Amino acid sequence: MTFSEENYLKTIYHLTTASDSEVSTNAIAERMETKASSVTDMLKKLAEKDLVNYKKYQGVSLTSAGKSEAKMIVRKHRLWEVFLVEKLDFSWDEVHDIAEQLEHIKSEQLINKLDDFLDNPTEDPHGDPIPDREGRIVKIEKQLLSELSENQVGVCVGVKDTSSEFLKYLDKQEIALGSKIEFLSRESFDLSLRIRVDKKELTISNKIASNLFVKLL
Amino acid sequence: MTFSEENYLKTIYHLTTASDSEVSTNAIAERMETKASSVTDMLKKLAEKDLVNYKKYQGVSLTSAGKSEAKMIVRKHRLWEVFLVEKLDFSWDEVHDIAEQLEHIKSEQLINKLDDFLDNPTEDPHGDPIPDREGRIVKIEKQLLSELSENQVGVCVGVKDTSSEFLKYLDKQEIALGSKIEFLSRESFDLSLRIRVDKKELTISNKIASNLFVKLL
DNA sequence: ATTAATTTTTAGACAAAACTAAAAATTATA
DNA sequence: TATAATTTTTAGTTTTGTCTAAAAATTAAT
Ligand SMILES: [Mn+2]
Ligand SMILES: [Mn+2]
Ligand SMILES: [Mn+2]
Ligand SMILES: [Mn+2]
């Protein structure tokens, strides 16, 4: 399997699990910053290998073989991110691009030994679940901070947007995985939220709140 | 720089440092298990980028830019091998192929953090020197076991052949880096050697002895 | 010094993965 | 429902890295 094929599978996996339906050629092209015609070419190749279900003009989905390949790539990506943060002391906004490369290293033994070395983590530095060696994923109960109602209290357990920009903003506000977050009030004019993070009160926009996952206490 | 370009540079580096002279198209082709015509194509491209000195039919050598690129790839290869053995508990005969992949990961920050995480090792699991972040190499005094004379004593500090086959043979004979090796006698008929490894005496062929580096005590 | 053998380069082809431009199919709109 | 807009596919190129077969240069052997 080539890097390119793996990247397509991973993208289709993310798009289908997000929307829970067939995914369009254009959606893939946009996500991968490539042209629709290139996507079509690749879909034919992946269909030939029975990794995707593809019928012209009908959108695409992963076969079970394709899904399990995709999960293994996601597993590798997230385990390497844990390694980079936990062992090499990278910050959570620096690891994605390096993991994009490391996820393509081929060795089942390597990834399983890495998994053990890291004490079999179930979530990556951004709170995303890590599939185990059989591809099983432990889903945790979580919801967007923006969906809470006043006076509810939760713990920050993940981010939806994993861009370096957003993560650095969170660092600046001292919001991290594990932070206790109390929803104090909502400003109806612009939907901004007044929250308390650990001891400190601050105001955040609705855009911020809708990219933060919390687990209710 | 592509994987392929990196692999060519690394091969030219190894061949030129071994023979200390220009290297031929055929030598590169043989080492890389590819065709001479493919090598010629690549040499033109590398010359265009000023990474090699190349004149038709005259053999090739690395420019200083090419040499420093090559050393960085070797540095990455060997640091990853240390990681695999020291942290992930691989044995020394299992790490080469995985390191062949890992050496192409692009991130200076990654490799320097890995270096620190491993406590800045100067040799890899096979006794080969690891260039530091400026490309400097600390050469250690070593010679082939086959070149010793009777009754000389040394410590095993490296292997010339790093094939899995040879390394497993050494494991079986309980010869490892750090083993004390005494040259007892030489059988003139087949050049085989009688040696003592730590406490145990054994006979090894000249071929084995000429693939083991020792440092005299 | 020719001729023969070997090495190296060139010429032309191919597969992978991308692109542009144009055609075809689908979906939306009047 | 006919037409317009959008999406998707096809057709034809390009780049990278490989290959085979043949030509050219170098080296070895009569
Ligand atoms: Mn990531
Ligand atoms: Mn992540
Ligand atoms: Mn190696
Ligand atoms: Mn090594």
Automatic annotation (TrEMBL), chains A, B:
Limits of the HTH dtxR-type domain: 1-63
Name of the protein described by the UniProt record: Transcriptional regulator MntR
Family membership noted in the UniProt record: Belongs to the DtxR/MntR family.
A Pfam family this chain is assigned to: Fe_dep_repress
Function: In the presence of manganese, represses expression of mntH and mntS. Up-regulates expression of mntP.
Domain of life: Bacteria
GO MF annotations, alphabetized: DNA binding; DNA-binding transcription factor activity; protein dimerization activity; transition metal ion binding
Listed InterPro entries: DtxR_MntR_Metal-Reg, Fe-transptr_FeoA-like, Fe_dep_repressor, Fe_dep_repressor_sf, FeoA_core_dom, HTH_DTXR, Iron_dep_repressor, WH-like_DNA-bd_sf
Organism: Flavobacterium endophyticum
Keywords: DNA-binding, Transcription, Transcription regulation
